[in-house]
């Protein structure tokens, strides 16, 4: 478990539920650069040819040496129109609305419209050979995981991307979820399923990690607000989501 349970007051509004752990400055800027570059590389490789070409054209217009070592982290992202972000159809949105009327809103993967303007991939391996700093950064991350047998997802939100309130599918993963935030700041909102007035909002800076486990994982909905919710986060955001596999964690609580 995380050795630090830190909240700087500037990061927080409301009362944080128990079982939520947050380290605002877990990764250094150079670790963030490495993780973000590797994550973009993996997502880009999975994308369509048309967009790969667009990215190539866009990159050739940039000064890539500066973009990698000196420019702000946000410049590792190309403009939004270089990525094939998925939108959500009205039909899927309608299904999501029905979920929210239930006591618990579960995300069926992400395919029921909980996320808008995003791309994602399930990660089977990191490109460690291409990014020398990756192994030490990942092993630091590994040292704070509550258990092994994990699944990793990369989730890239467009500048206007958002994640609507949901509880992660309880049959798809177990009792904890770790999120690494890279790129533009976003607000994570937690809302008690039993009492919607119990709300906490946490500002997630680039390089921060959080863990939702047990109570907060099962009894709170979480969402990532759109950029318009606050002033200084107009860009794209990557999250590395790590979850424990359900088959290694059979103790799913009964919500009824
Ligand atoms: C998710 C999710 C939160 C984040 O992928 O289910 O809620 O921090 N992500 O990106
Ligand atoms: Mn989620």
From TrEMBL:
It comes from the Eukaryota. InterPro entries: AlkB-like, AlkB-like_sf, ALKBH7-like, Oxoglu/Fe-dep_dioxygenase_dom. One of its GO terms (cellular component) is mitochondrial matrix. GO terms for molecular function: 2-oxoglutarate-dependent dioxygenase activity. Residues 140-246 form the Fe2OG dioxygenase domain. It holds the Pfam family 2OG-FeII_Oxy_2. This is Fe2OG dioxygenase domain-containing protein.
